[in-house]
Design brief:
Blueprint: H1 5-23, H2 27-33, E1 45-49, E2 55-59, E3 61-66, E4 71-76, E5 81-85, E6 90-94
Antiparallel strand pairs: 1-2, 1-6, 3-4, 4-5
Amino acid sequence: MHPVPRLAQQLVTEWAEDLAPVLGRSVEEIQQKGLGAADFPSNGSLHIKLMDGSFVQFEHAFHVVNARKFAIAVFTEHCGYHVFPFHEAEVSRIQREVLFVQAF
């Protein structure tokens, strides 16, 4: 994991209650141990389109939505943890189908 450690820990702490049911662990365990490699999916890309048409796409990532915070938190294995506004946002998991690869 390569996120800025202080900010990563802050987001894990702030979102631990939302992460607990997704990860199947207690809030306390998440706050103490953080996230590990097994928490991040490898099935496709997480694509988030924001209200102004901007978008981000991450590999090995999952998201959590919190309506009270008006936010979507994204947790990636290698590219940090991020928070985006959820107003008119669209979150998709994109599966890639390789149709051709040129062998050298």
